[in-house]
Specification:
By secondary structure, the protein is of the alpha/beta class. The protein has twelve helices and nine strands. The protein has a single domain, classed as Vaccinia Virus protein VP39 (Rossmann fold, 3-Layer(aba) Sandwich). Strands 3-2-1-4-5-9-8 form a seven-stranded mixed beta sheet, sandwiched between helices. The protein is globular.
């Protein structure tokens, strides 16, 4: 059983790499695909003038900035004070509701049913135990209005599993087949499969509307092959395959869109 998450360690890593994290989604065509395919879902399910959105674990605020530009009102929280400082230095808008340090597992300072949408674009792969991830999902549900939308990002074990097969590491193959933590930048990160994510969302009182992989068939292509693609054609190819049920976990990242359930499962 995994130990509980060292959230102080996560904060230190993102304080150190705040600038790099802001730049990450522009660093390569594959990273740009991650942003573009997520933005599709934000446009469809979240964006409307005046929508009040909580970006919990916002990092340096790339998605918050996108939503502000689309006319939403956004509150940001994150473990990393440096990430939020960079956001406040970069973005000046009366539509920013707040920037506050804190964990997605404890949003007790926010009133129930106070947001139209919540983004969890990092917590569910930084929180390494099921109970912690469930706490973040339940907090998101608590602060969402009836029918509110959750957009939640996950990291798949797919690439790590392929690497374990390449290395001939049967024990690691067996472990990652069920999902689990791996190490990145000196901190644990949780890798989970779409089926487990969907089950946890249901357990937390959500109805899953969409699951989309963000890199899919490109996850195992070489950087040289990817960078040789024409961007819009590349994104179109990913969009054509990103919601095929049999390929949802064959990716680096995937996103679930869910709605507060009217009759949540018990």
């Amino acid at each position: 059983m995994a130990e509980s998450t060292d959230q102080d360690a996560v904060a230190r890593v993102y304080d150190r790499y705040a600038v790099s994290e802001y730049e990450r989604l522009d660093r390569s065509l594959l990273n740009r695909a991650e942003f573009a395919l997520t933005a599709d879902l934000l446009d469809e399910y979240v964006v409307r003038p005046g929508a009040e959105v909580l970006d919990a674990a916002a990092g340096p605020g790339r998605y918050a900035e996108y939503l502000l530009d689309k006319g939403c009102r956004v509150g940001l929280s994150d473990l990393s004070a440096e990430s939020l400082r960079l956001f406040e230095e970069r973005v000046r808008s009366d539509a920013v509701l707040f920037c506050r340090t804190g964990s997605a597992t404890d949003l007790g300072w926010l009133a129930p049913e106070s947001f139209d949408a919540v983004l969890l674009m990092g917590p569910l792969y930084h929180l390494v135990t099921h109970d912690e991830r469930l706490a973040a999902l339940r907090e998101a549900r608590r602060v969402l209005r009836p029918g509110g939308i959750l957009v939640a990002a996950y990291i798949s074990p797919y690439r790590n599993l392929v690497e374990a097969v390449e290395a001939g590491d049967l024990r690691e193959v067996e472990r990652l087949s069920g999902g689990g933590p791996t190490m990145h930048l000196g901190m644990q990160q949780y890798r989970g499969w779409p089926g487990a994510a969907q089950e946890a969302l249901s357990e937390a009182g959500f109805e899953v509307l969409r699951t989309r992989n963000l890199q899919g068939l490109a996850a195992r292509l070489s950087p040289e092959t990817i960078e040789g693609q024409e961007p819009e054609e590349f994104f179109a190819m990913l969009r054509a395959t990103c919601e095929l049920p049999d390929l949802l976990g064959a990716t680096l990242h995937f996103v679930c869109v869910a709605r507060v359930a009217q009759n949540p499962a018990r």
